[in-house]
Amino acid sequence: MNNTTKKTTYILAGWLIDGSGGRIRKKSLLKLVDGQIIEISNYGNEPVEISDLSHCTILPPLIDSHVHLFMSGTLNKIHRKNQLVANFDDIKNVISRHMNNHLAYGILAVRDAGDAAGHALRYKNQCLDGDIIPVILKAAGKAWHRKGRYGKLIGRSPSENETLASAIANDHSPVDHIKIVNSGLNSLTQYGKETPPQFERKEMKDAVCHAEKAGLKVMVHTNGKIPVNISIHSGCHSIEHGFFMGRENLIHLAEKNIFWVPTAITMKAYTEYSGKKYSKKETGVPEKNLIHQLKQMAMAKKYGVRIALGTDSGSIGVHHGKAVIGEIKLLMEAGYSTAEAVMCATYNGSKLLDIDTMGLIAEGRQATFIAVKGNPSEFPDNLNHIESIYINGRPLDG
Ligand SMILES: [Zn+2]
């Protein structure tokens, strides 16, 4: 004899943002069988025993599609310098702390965009225990950049006798995706300055082709019209940053259904911290960069570009976990509704990272979601105090 009775439970949500970008529902009753959502209906005081989240808004777990776990957002120059050269034994505790920071803000998946030693990837394979920190980590390992160009802090270059494609093909690290650097950094001192691409169209195309053969997606750090254009036409899967890419490229992104990860919060952080005299150069350029990026984000909405939220946490003043609140606010400042901003931070990220256990709260899906106190007008500030996190129908702390 075995007991095959399935357990039925009910959850009452005050407000439901389902991740699809559609309308926010009030007083929804979720009927679960063994942790799976069987039915979502309007609550009419049914005589059932419920887990009462009527004081909360529920939404899918957040996904940060661009982080650097080996670095903190600290402004302390000595700490930053030390983290850049730290060995694995020292940095693994820092990475654990950052993963817990993500969890505290309801982020249950992150995509790491690389570090020179491949620490985040090694952490994933040697240290991460999903029962202790239930945050999915997708890691690029070491990024790829052209020798002599920007990218040394987060990656390596193909050797003398290798092309970018053959370097990718010859590397057998157990990475989740490939990260390529295909421009310089966005300038903080010269407004709108564009840098040349690191790799030309054919090199990029071949590289993406090799990655795809290995079943891997390609994320490309790239800013400026020409580098972004080359990257888009390589067939890559996401454009990271994309500062000053321009209207044409946004239209191409929409046509080719490529994700964009704007990381606008980096410029907001520089704007705030240059005010605190972190940098001696008081240029006002970061703020102008931010305003320009917000305009591009508004255009992206108009053209139907799919944005996946990413923060570039680990950059100066961009803190793991907390930064997601800032990036959501910037999406809303650019004209995205609460539901649309949530979609960028949930559903779109799940598609980009290929995580099908997250992204939507819908019938047939597992009941994996976060609950934050208050109505949707209190979002995203209420992410500062997550009420509860449910995974497969069970509260994490239950
Ligand atoms: Zn980055």
Which helices and strands appear, and what pairs or packs with what?
Elements: E1 8-16, E2 25-33, E3 36-42, E4 50-59, E5 62-67, H1 77-85, H2 88-104, E6 107-112, H3 119-126, E7 136-139, E8 143-144, E9 155-156, H4 164-170, E10 177-181, H5 201-213, E11 217-222, H6 225-233, E12 238-241, H7 247-256, E13 259-261, H8 265-275, H9 285-303, H10 323-333, H11 338-345, H12 347-352, E14 369-373, E15 386-391, E16 394-395
Parallel strand pairs: 1-4, 5-6, 6-7, 8-9, 10-11, 11-12, 12-13
Antiparallel strand pairs: 1-2, 2-3, 4-14, 14-15, 15-16
Helix pairs in contact: 2-3, 4-5, 6-7, 7-9, 8-9, 10-11
The protein binds zinc ion.
Identify the CATH architecture of the largest domain. Answer: Alpha-Beta Barrel
Strand order of the largest sheet: 3-2-1-4-14-15-16
CATH class designation of the largest domain: Alpha Beta
Oligomeric category: single chain
